[in-house]
Fold these 4 entries.
Entry 1:
Amino acid sequence: MITGIDYILYTDKDKDAFIEKIKESITFWKNPYIAIDNEDETTDIFVSRDEEMFRLMDEKGFYVEELSGEGPFLLIFNSGYSSKENRVTLVLSEEIYESKFSKLVFNTIKSIL
């Protein structure tokens, strides 16, 4: 079972522009692994440090590495939310008030909206 902490955000960017901004803005990892899964009205954007971290998420769900304090995260881009804006659900391993890494990810995503 995959569980995490959800944060709801909104953007006026379209899906392709949003994904490009993610790729440009994730600078805390040298070469992040990004997996994109298109559904009907949503697009799941999985982001992890590398493919191994992504694979472990499939086994463990949203987790945090003990040494680094880092973990994978998910962005669910909902283009069918409204005609004026798109909803983005950010799913993190830990609360942004309890984890420096979660706060960093949240602030990074918030800055590109």
Entry 2:
Amino acid sequence: MNNVPIPEIVTKKKSGTEMFQFNNKNLNINLLKFWSWNQSNLIENRTRGLLAEFIVKNALEIKSDYRVEYANYDLISNEGLKLEIISAAYIQSWTQKKHSEIKFGISPTVGSKENPTFDGKKRRWSDYYIFCVLTNKDQNTINPLDLSQWTFYVLKTEILNIFKQNQKTIGLNSLLELRPFKCDYLGLKKAVLTKEI
């Protein structure tokens, strides 16, 4: 039996011009077509969450070539701050009877077994939570790429651990009671890196 571990695949950043192939011949399909097909619905919950991470990454000018799946936190700043990014919106991609309530998942997790500090105990692994709200309530004008339609709330994880230790979700009003630092896209970097919160 082969007990040699299979090493991690090191991902290389792709441009979108990479071609699909069959029998070593390029097809008329490139990776960009897949990306467009797979993630054009930016209002859909999962895609909006990934978009929020990308927005924060760019606001903080984080130098990373690609997203790491299944990490203990979503982003790490150039200064070493671990960040958990969570998004919510009033407008959804499905038919709604009313606007959605703004609610965020904040449940502690056991994290990855690959992490050097793994001990099987649940915790929040980040230094900060960044709660991202797509605030537009009008279906006709909502545009997740318009960064003026987003509001961000930055909160130290230790505050969640003190006041919401084992809580799995938090609504916007309960979050505001914890007095997070509220800012727009242009204020995010200053809020996190100068520790004004």
Entry 3:
Amino acid sequence: MEILDMKCAEYGNKIVEEIGNASEKNKIESMITKALGVLQEDGVYAFALYTKSKSGDGGVEKITARVVHDKACKLLKDDKIELLPGSCNSFLDDLRSHLANDVDKLFLAKELLERTLVYARYHAKALNSVSHSGGV
């Protein structure tokens, strides 16, 4: 059995690796922190709505929101976790239909997303000092 914390670390790294703009690390870290705050205060569905609403292709904050939204979906649909079925085209619908009726899965999803965003935030802080492969 794979340790779920390591899955969170993997996806946290993927978030920052995909954005990969060390010169904008404060903006990346800021958007990740805002998304984490929404998740902690308002829950999984509000987090998904927030990241979707802030997503786009212009500017590092919009790109960060898009990548966070995408990787959050992929984490919950990962074949080792399988909290949600299907593709990421219907992330919000899947959250409503598959997690709304199962409080245990909902709390697990929230915990996994929180851990992933914490790891992503640390990866963003370390953008200048650590290569993407994890070395110094």
Entry 4:
Amino acid sequence: MSTKLRRGFVAAVAMLAGLVFAPGASADQPSGMQPYIVGGGEASVTDHPYAVFLVDGNGNQFCGGTLVADDTVLTAAHCAVTDSASQLGVVAGRQDKRGTDGVQVGVSRVWIAPGYEAPTGGGDIAVLKLSETVPYSPAKLADASDSELYAAGTQATVLGWGRLEEGGDKSDTLRSAQVPVVDDATCGEAYTSYDAKTMLCAGYPEGGVDACQGDSGGPLMVGDTVIGVVSWGDGCAKPGKPGVYTRVATYAEAVSQA
């Protein structure tokens, strides 16, 4: 199995070793969809003000994130574990990566879930404390009271600036796609390392709609609540291989205290 990290430059290295992290696919997929986010369309930061992206020291986007407070960003651990806070930047309020709108701020502190080793082992979640507040509306964190948001078939929205197809170019603009939550039994059949306590899957049985490289760390939303963090999967949008996301509700208390 070729597992996919959905991080930018990490994904490029990982692909050489057959390893790539971030989600896959699963319910009846709308017909006629083209391979964007993969399988979605352009989205507006006005509609999704909590959607942010991470940049390296050279200003290159490599992961996504979710604003959960005016000074706090939720992302994937594999997006933050190899970099010190001083090497990370967060861009908020910017629709097009080539633009200058919105704000870019530094990161003062990084929290990574205790025990994290690799996305397939769970705990692929991190918190970035920003060096200053940003003037955008945050998303709500799913918690233990939000079990209905994780019910199989729930329509969720994944957002990111990642590749438009597996191995293809990244999007310059924010994109979104609708994917249904997949039941744990189906996800466990697709991935032997799937852990229902710390992960969830979303996608279509026939594939075609998914997050891809560069989308890692971005949000899986139900309404204005973030229920998942883009983590890993087998390729991008493959049939029978739904995307795997970190289950936010499991870590909500720790994230709030980070």
